[in-house]
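Changelog-linked ticket: zinc ion example.
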Amino acid sequence: MQRNLGVARNVLSSRLQGLVDEGILERRLYSERPERYEYFLTEKGLDLWPTIVSLMHWGDKHLPLPDGPPVILIHKGECGGVVNDRRICERCGKELEVRESRATEGPGLAAARRELEAV
Ligand SMILES: [Zn+2]
């Protein structure tokens, strides 16, 4: 996760803890030696999905990166269509719920990482 986001470990840890404190993520121990945790979205976090999708598309439109969007949402499974700003699959036309989509790397991700590292 740290490598994908391009942020320092302490920054990531602090941000994740903030989301846990707000009840958006839940931290679960999955290995005792070494001690490791994984993070899951709570119902409160899952309910943010429509807002996050809207913000992603707003950013892609109004603050575009030269190479394109950093992240693209696609319809999970065989369809693989791109999810639009109304959370509808552009290939099959289905209105999607949070668990029916997944985020994939977009063409602008490398530039977005460089920008984060420069901050
Ligand atoms: Zn689809």
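Closing comment: Example verified and attached. The longest strand covers residues 25-31. Residues 75, 79, 81, 89, 91-92, 94 surround zinc ion (CB under 6 Å).
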